[in-house]
Every structure is written in structure tokens, then in C-alpha cells.
Fold this sequence. Notes:
- This protein is an all-alpha fold.
- It folds into two domains: 3-36 and 119-273, no CATH class; 49-115, no CATH class.
- 79% of the residues lie in helices and 0% in strands.
- The protein is built from ten helices and no strands.
Amino acid sequence: MPPRTAIIANGIELGLVFAGLVLIWQLVLSPAARARRAATPSALATWDAPLSDFFLFLWVIICGGILGQLLAAMLFKPLALSEDGKLIFANAALEFGMLGGIAFFWFGLRRGETIRAWAPAQALFSGVMTFLAAMPVVVLVGLVWEFLLEHCGLPIDRQDMIGRLANAESPALLAGMIGLATVTAPIAEELIFRAGFFRYARTRMPRWAALLLPACLFAALHQNLATFAPLAALGIVFSLAYERTGRIGTAMIAHGLFNAHTVALVLIDPSAAN
């Protein structure tokens, strides 16, 4: 990567981390922030439902994902896609299938619960703040995790999708990957892990477990040891933001911004994918 481009990329990264540190102090650690937090109850409504409903939620998501995969497999041959194209198409089918299962559960099977208004302006603002606050946490955890992996002799490999993004064969394939990373995946994953797992668990197990378990499942979904701890930390930040605001849109926007930030870094410096 040309030195000037490297300086710009590193400067942006440091700027985001610094802005996040300032926000963490102002919104979390300062005396005024602690006082506000103690006086303000969580805005997240309790999910009062039996365990059977939670398992039904998981079941329709799994069925939706399987159905999406089956439909994608039927279309592979007539579309004559490349291997990367098949992978992106399959991921899109999986995520849209899971979203279909989620929609069926919440709008078709759910009873006795109202949906909080979307409020895009508030979700956008709190989502941006959450993304910035997450940056120093993810960077610090990532550095510590990489140090531990190196000293344990474990591999530090980048995610397969990152490499495919850096070496996309066509603008259409690149656009598809970016759309999945920044829009579809954040919506599906936040509905599953925050609006589903975390919201159900937070009133049924110790708070540390309710924060940690969905975050670890979210990180494990990405099937990459090098990013496991940073993504788990990211999941905890998203859960805390969702709990504080009561709006899943906050976590969705923060998640989309984080993925967009990762995409931008890979496109600026393709060698980061190696």
C-alpha cells in the first residue's frame, strides 16, 4: 500500500478510536454519566414468553435459513455463477431466509406484544455513538487477543470473506458483498442475537451471562479464531446499547457502520486481507 494511503487509513482508524474514547468517558465513565445511568432505568421491555416460544423463534429462523439455501441451490445451475458468486448468493439466501423466519414469528405467531416505533433519527444518532464507542473496545481486545494467540502458537488467519472481498472478480460481486455486509447481515444478526437471544436471556440468567452468551454465539458464527474475542466484545457493546435505548435499530446501525468500516479498510489496503 502506498505510504500516503497507509497514513490516511491509519489516521482515520486512530481518529475513530480517539473519538470513541472521548464518548466512553462522556457517556459511560464520567461522574455525570454514572449518575444519569443510575437514575435512568433500561428502556428495553422484558420479553415475557415461555421457553417454548423462544425455541419456536429459533426453529422458524432455522427453517427459514434452510428454505433459503434450498432455493439458492436450485438457482445455482441456471445462473452459471462463479464459486465466489455462489458463495455470496448462498449467504444472501441464508440471511433472507432467516429474516423471513423472523418476520413470520414476530408478525404471524407472536401475541400480546407491541412493537416499539422505529424512530429512525434517534436510532441513527445512537447507532453512530455506539459504533464510535465500540471502536476502542474492539481495537484493544483485538490487540490483546492477537498477543495471546501468538504466544500460544495458534494461527491468526483472516476471515475468508475478507479475502474474497479484497479480490472480488467484478463490480457486481463486490456490490453484493458490500450490501450483505453492511445491510442484510446487521439486520439479521441483530434481530437474532440481540432482539432474540439477549432480550430473552437478560431476565432469566445473571446479567454477565446474558451479555456474554449471545456475544460468544455471535462471534462463533463468523468461524474465525482471530476475530472471536473482538467480535464477542463488539456483541457485548451492541447488547448494552440495545438495553439502554430499547431500540434494535441502534444496534443494527452500529453493526452496519462497523462492517462498512471494515470493508473500507480492506478496499483501501487489500493486503490487510492476507
